[in-house]
């Protein structure tokens, strides 16, 4: 399964999620951001690659739909509702991501 994590700048939240799941045996993970200054910017190709897209906030889903409506029409998107209050690998952020994402992975 290919999983894409998306936040704004691809600096704290989505890279944390990618780090958590990068060694999971049955999934491949990537992360990207929606902002022009993002470390890795979202592309139509990344959206098409993903079997499931986890966005940190509702606005990220809206931005993906605006930029890549064709690719997004085929995408499964889950909004995690994790606001931008955390640094990379913040223990609270890790717990929030795991508790939200693991159910989609059959228990992680």
Describe this structure in words.
By secondary structure, the protein is an alpha/beta fold. It has one domain (2-105): Rossmann fold (3-Layer(aba) Sandwich), CATH 3.40.50.2300. The chain is 37% helix and 18% strand. It is built from five helices and four strands. It has helices spanning 13-21, 44-49, 58-67, 69-72, 91-101, and strands spanning 2-7, 28-33, 52-55, 77-79. A four-stranded parallel β-sheet has the order 2-1-3-4. The longest helix has 11 residues, at 91-101. It is globular. This is Protein tyrosine phosphatase.
Please provide a brief summary of the model.
The protein has five helices and four strands, in the order βαβαβααβα. With 108 residues, the protein is α/β, with parallel strands linked by helices.
Provide key terms for this protein:
Protein tyrosine phosphatase; 108 residues; alpha/beta; globular; Ptyr_pPase; 5 helices; Rossmann fold; 4-stranded parallel β-sheet; UCP029416_PTP; Ptyr_pPase_sf
């Amino acid at each position: 399964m290919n999983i894409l994590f998306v936040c704004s700048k691809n600096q704290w939240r989505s890279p944390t999620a990618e780090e958590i799941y990068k060694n999971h045996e049955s999934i491949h993970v990537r992360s990207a951001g929606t902002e022009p200054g993002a470390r890795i910017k979202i592309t139509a190709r990344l959206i098409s690659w993903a079997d499931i897209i986890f966005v940190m906030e509702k606005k990220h889903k809206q931005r993906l739909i605006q930029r890549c409506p064709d690719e997004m029409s085929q995408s499964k998107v889950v909004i995690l509702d994790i606001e931008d209050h955390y640094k990379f690998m913040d223990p609270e952020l890790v717990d929030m991501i795991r508790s939200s994402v693991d159910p989609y992975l059959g228990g992680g």
